[in-house]
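Example 3.2
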Amino acid sequence: MPTTRPAAMTMALVLAYTMPASAFVTGGGPARTDCYAGWQVTTPEVAPAHGKVRVDCQDGDPSCDVDAAVDGTCTFGVSVCLALPGVAACTPQAVTAVRLSKRAVALGVTAPEPLPAATFQCGPATLVPATLRSGRRGPKPSRPVQLKLTALTSGRPRRDADQLVLRCVPNTGAAQCPANASGGPREVSLAIAAEGTDLDNGWSGVSHNFPIPFGAVLRLCLAGCDASTNPQCAEDQGATEQVNGATFGSPIPLLAAGIPVCLVNRFASPKLTDGQANVQDGSVDVAMHLLSDVVLSSSNQICPRCSGSDLGRAGTCDTGARQGQACRTDGVVTVAGAPGNSRYTLSSDCRPATPPAGTLNITLPLTTGTSMLAGPRPCGATQDDGCQGGTCSAMCTGAACAPMTTDGQCVDRKGGVSQLCCSNDTTTPCFPTAGGGIIVRMGTAAAPMPPWPDPTYPKSADAALVATFCEGATGTAAVDLVTGLPGPGALIVPVTGQWIQ
């Protein structure tokens, strides 16, 4: 259905993209100067765990550890912020200078510019590592990393002296699925593969055959399956809600008919429902609920990038709502036809600053089985395809079959896998829904190895999730007319599955 955007909703969207951070480490000292300056640690939600100065981060907790991996090191993103909003008993003053301790300077911490500054702003993030220490009984907290600053103002009081103490502590469950009470695996994580993805939007064919950034991970917490008699696991929905982030992977840069779009797939509530996963044969079924923000952008910078050079690398956002702030590259894709550097290192931490032109409410019935959607004109589409008198029945050629894989699949110049093209123009992709035709996507599953009920974990297996689904109109005529919305959509996502006990 078309997205309605009354004035109140539009204002809410603008505020959601522009509101300042909501939690800071104010750094100690008198309450009446706490708002002059402070620290932001990794994400706006991180508050001190001990008093006003100390932040303890569990190794691998993505809210504070930028690399989000349980690897023995926490990587903090540290920014100096001025004129902190919402600090009780404090009125911001114009900060004329910021003096940093020798350790802060040595680590590369910098203050916001230019000064003086009397309104809220944060400087660029500096990546500060802290490594767990080894102990006879396992890892121990890292040595504290202590940073200091002094903010000077032209008003009274004239000074605000702040500290920040960072510690990495062993992970005791943060961002982890709980143990499966039945004794089977507690989690299956599904990481998107580098090749073989395909995203098809709308009936026109112009927005078909896009690749999906590889590296994004979908996590299902599991319950019910046991160690030797029952391999069929059910989703632990409450735990699954906690371990998946706010978005499904990084933003997706799309360039269709010259229109640059940054697609941000936020999870709706609930995020994932009706999940089932079989540790014996590797099959997975789950409904994913998304709010897809369609953000019109520039062809020179379709989506913000993370400076982390590859998957898992920490860096900072080069543009967007969190420009200069800490990020971890969790998606990589090459955008065909994009000017300049067409390789995008993307992060769910780096989202556009521009409010979306429209938001689609989409449910993806993901399955390793078969997904089908029948015509004619499914999902409220005004027509079945853009073939202009031809039929959607031909093998693709030209740009829609730039290379061909060894198993006979066409790969579009955009990078996604081609399915069918128009008989009268075999470079135009299409959906075969005319006359009651059916869109079919076939997934695959393989038995995780070592094979269940072998007690060895983790187990791993490659698979392919697929979905056919309906997409509403964005409310932006340029996007809807070119893409063919409202209309059907289809998805192929090869994944590497890890089953964890």
